[in-house]
Amino acid sequence: VANKHAEIAGAGLVGLSTALLLSNRGWTVRVHEQSPKVREIGAGIALHQGACSVFEHLGLMPEIFEKGIDLDASQALDRTGKVLADRTLSGAYRQVTIPRQTLIRILAEAVEAAGIEIKVNSRALGARASGDLLFANGTTARADLVVGADGFHSAVRDSLNLARRKVKRSNGATRALIEHEKSDGRTVLEEWWGPANRVGILPVAPGLTYVYMSSRESDKRATRTPIEAAYWSSLFPGIDPVIFEKLSEVEGRHDPYPYVKPRAWSAGRVAIVGDALNALPPSLGLGASLGLRNARLMVDAVTQYSEDIPAALQQWERNGRPDTEWIQRWSLFRERLSHNLPAPLATLRSKMLTRSNGFRGWGQRGRSFDEALITGRDSGREGVDAG
Ligand SMILES: Cc1cc2nc3c(=O)[nH]c(=O)nc-3n(C[C@H](O)[C@H](O)[C@H](O)COP(=O)(O)OP(=O)(O)OC[C@H]3O[C@@H](n4cnc5c(N)ncnc54)[C@H](O)[C@@H]3O)c2cc1C
Questions:
Q1: Rounded to whole angstroms, how far apart are CA atoms 50 and 47?
Q2: Each residue of 357-384: pLDDT tens digit?
Q3: How far apart are CA 247 and CA 177, in angstroms?
Q4: Among 7, 8, 30, 33, which residue has the most ligand 1 atoms within 8 Å of its CB, making it the best to mutate?
Q5: Span 83-94, mean pLDDT?
Q6: Which residues contact 308 (CB under 8 A, 6 or more apart)?
Q7: How far is CA 117 from CA 41, 142, 191, 250, 336, in A?
Q8: How distant is the alpha carbon of residue 251 from its chain centre?
Q9: pLDDT digits 0-9 by tens, 98-121
Q10: Best substitution site from 16, 32, 45 to test ligand 1's pocket, by max atoms within 8 Å of Cβ?
């Protein structure tokens, strides 16, 4: 497109990726970040193939592979360490893990190399459907496209009343990084299932392990940070107590799970992407994949129909909504399965995890969630059969 300009609120992983996607298609872009610098919170992240397909398209996967870990397998275990399921991860089911701070730095460097300006200390207050982004310092920027990538609390979304529901769930997770490495050389995401808690243990870089511990928000001993090692060890006797001891010595961070149900995905020239649009409990680990997939579809739509951006955005929503709602529904269901099951049903759940090899919900039209979120022709579909 010639002479089209976008203003983006939010320099998280979806905001920066959207900036790169637009810039690749010939747009000029400026990104506004409210914080004094671009940074990530929340320890590590597992990028499923949907997210990887967008980063591949942006040429960032070689560096992500170099700094992160291409996982061999994903295991489900019960609280004592009995292996309930063991899935090999490849093709459409690949998962690449990386410290969040490393990922955001890779993105910020790519944005800088593309000549895109990131304005820090620039807080958006809201937007107008006509294409104006309004800032806390009283100024306004006008653009052909305004993007609200400003996360769960999105000021851009709320100024246009685009959320039908926006809730913090009654379950949440504590996340932290520890210096730890397993000695057997196999890179595995271990997901330990307790009656109402889950612990994920996964390598994210050589010598570095990311741990998430999820629980009901009402369980005050479980939500406390730094974590209470003895309590978590009693919940998960099969986990090496050294892991919980190391976790109790680092700060960690606890957040309730987010969920956003949008009323509409856009208003006039303003589009919402990422957690601002489709935040979901991370029970399937698909937040980044869903956010990046919808951002990429949005950039395709506004580039292809750049003469009528409001209509392009409405078409984008019609195309993207069904799979988004499907994945959000299953994430809510898997969250309840993890945390809100009556205790006697935990045995049944273990059997189900074994029968379904890790239970990630049922596919639709012959596709799994992971397959549905893979974008673009250069997306690694050739690897789909391998999963
Ligand atoms: C416990 C937990 C575990 C998760 N694990 C995974 C996982 O393993 N894999 C996965 O794919 N996903 C995971 N997710 C989801 C994933 O983290 C999110 O979907 C993703 O980070 C959303 O990125 P974003 O850029 O939309 O939002 P954010 O990362 O929230 O970024 C928003 C940015 O906007 C800035 N901002 C906010 N308001 C304003 C404003 N008014 N003006 C200017 N700037 C503003 C913020 O400072 C921030 O930099 C997890 C989520 C949780 C809660």
A1: 8
A2: 998 888 888 899 999 999 996 444 333 3
A3: 8
A4: 33
A5: 96
A6: none
A7: 22, 15, 40, 35, 42
A8: 22
A9: 999 999 999 999 999 999 999 999
A10: 45
**Whole-angstrom distance, CA of residue 5 vs CA of residue 36:** 24
Distance between CA 132 and CA 141 in Å, rounded?
6
Distances (CA, A) of 334 to 149, 268, 322, 331, 362: 26, 35, 19, 5, 11
Q: What is the CA radius of gyration of the chain?
A: 21
> Atom of ligand 1 at shortest distance to CA of 97?
8
Tell me, in angstroms, the distance from the centre of ligand 1 to residue 12's CA: 6
> How far does CA 181 lie from the centroid of its chain?
24
The model carries a pTM of 0.96
End-to-end distance of the chain based on CA atoms, in angstroms? 37
How remote is the CA of residue 150 from the centroid of ligand 1, in Å? 8
